[in-house]
Amino acid sequence: MGRPPNEGGFVVSKTMLASIAIFVTVVAVAGATALAKGQKPRSSPEQIVAMQVTSEGFVPAQVKVKAGQPVKLVVTRKTEMTCAKEIVIKDFGINQPLPLNQPVEITFTPTKAGKFRYACGMDMITGVIIVE
Ligand SMILES: [Cu+2]
């Protein structure tokens, strides 16, 4: 049975190839799992921003959020001393009355970066949302 001596060598290398293939598959699966884990925090990324209306106006008067993630503004008007009895965010079609001492939730999702103004109904008391 004149087996060429290199046939055995061929069989071994085939086995090695199979092992390498399995190894690569395991690494790929592990990588995909790690990726899925890495993405998980981005799936429930609501950005909650507390805001008040005081005698100073909107506090804070500048808010930073990230694009593509829902924003929940919780606005509480604490004073009768200003005309800011509502909050208007034109770019997001928001015009929300602010009853005294009642937290009001306003939810929207900025889709692109930029600066978006918020203001009282007369556009006198203002602030800016910086979307990054
Ligand atoms: Cu006003």
Q: Based on the structure given, which CATH architecture of the largest domain is correct?
A: Sandwich
Structural class of the helix and strand makeup? Answer: alpha/beta
Overall mean confidence score, pLDDT: 82
The CATH class name of the largest domain reads Mainly Beta
Radius of gyration: 29 Å
**SSE order:** HEEEEEEEEE
The main β sheet shows up as: 4 strands, mixed
CATH topology of the largest domain: Immunoglobulin-like
What ligands are attached or bound here? copper (II) ion
- Lateral arrangement of strands in the main beta sheet: 2-1-4-7
Q: What distance lies between the first and last C-alpha atoms, to the nearest angstrom?
A: 74 Å
Shape: elongated
Strand composition percent: 35-45%
CATH superfamily of the largest domain: Cupredoxins -  blue copper proteins
Uncertain residue ranges: 27-35
Number of H/I helices: 1
What is the strand tally?
9
**Fraction of residues in H or I helices:** 25-40%
Give a structural overview:
This protein is α/β, with parallel strands linked by helices and 132 residues long. The chain folds into 2 domains: 5-42; 45-131, Sandwich (Immunoglobulin-like). It has 1 helix and 9 strands; from the N terminus they run αβββββββββ. It has one helix at residues 5-39, and strands at residues 47-54, 57-59, 62-65, 71-77, 86-89, 94-97, 104-108, 114-119, 126-131. The strands form 3 sheets. It has a 4-stranded mixed β-sheet with strand order 2-1-4-7, with no helix packed on it. Strands 3-9-8 form a 3-stranded mixed β-sheet, with no helix packed on it. A two-stranded antiparallel sheet has the order 5-6. The N and C termini lie far apart (74 Å). Residues 27-35 have low confidence and may be disordered. Copper (II) ion binds next to loops. Copper (II) ion is lined by residues 83-84, 120-122, 124-125.
